[in-house]
Every structure is written in C-alpha cells, then in structure tokens.
Specification:
The transhydrogenation between NADH and NADP is coupled to respiration and ATP hydrolysis and functions as a proton pump across the membrane. It catalyses: NAD(+) + NADPH + H(+)(in) = NADH + NADP(+) + H(+)(out). The protein has helices spanning 3-27, 34-57, 62-91. The chain is mainly alpha-helical. It has one domain (3-91).
Length: 102
C-alpha cells in the first residue's frame, strides 16, 4: 500500500471515529445541559473561525484558499446560529413582565 493511500485510510478512520464518538456523546446529554454546552461549543467554533481566516489568507495553493474561504463561511454560520439558539433558549427562562402597575 502506498503512503498516500495509507494516510487517506488513516484520516478516514479518524473522521469516522470522531463522527461516531460525537454522536454518542451528544445523544446522551440531558436537555438541561444543552444551553451551557452550546455556549462552550460556540467558543470552540470561534477558534475554528480564526484558524479558517488564517488558512484562507495564507499564500498557499488556490485549493487551500478556497477551502479556507468555505471554512470561514461554515464556521461563521455555526457561530451565529449557535448564539441565536442560545439567546432564544435563555429567553425562555426570563420572567415575563406583568401588565398591572404596583
């Protein structure tokens, strides 16, 4: 087996393992912990966004620049969507103002 094929098999195995472990972990999280975990994952996605910006701005091959730009787009959607969902979930716990004057 050539080194390139070995590397491809190795990276595919890591991707499949990450997908499986991620799914198993998320499926077992109780509903009360989703908001704090989402806030933490938004911070991690922010770090991903910085790395994507560095990758897109580096003077590498054109394919790397396009992949970096796609990563910036996807990470931005993930961060913004995560914060919107977190804000909406936290709004459910706020007390509603009553109509009467006190």
């Amino acid at each position: 087996m050539t080194p390139e094929i070995q590397q491809l098999v190795y990276l595919t195995f890591i991707l499949m393992l990450a997908i499986f472990v991620g799914f198993e972990l998320i499926a077992k999280v109780p509903a009360t912990l989703h908001t704090p975990l989402m806030s933490g994952s938004n911070a991690i996605s922010g770090i991903t966004l910085v790395g994507a910006l560095v990758s897109a701005g580096a003077e590498h091959a054109q394919l790397a620049t396009w992949l970096g730009a796609a990563a910036v787009t996807l990470a931005t959607i993930n961060v913004v969507g995560g914060y919107l969902v977190t804000d909406r979930m936290l709004a459910m716990f706020k007390k509603k103002a009553t109509g009467g004057a006190k």
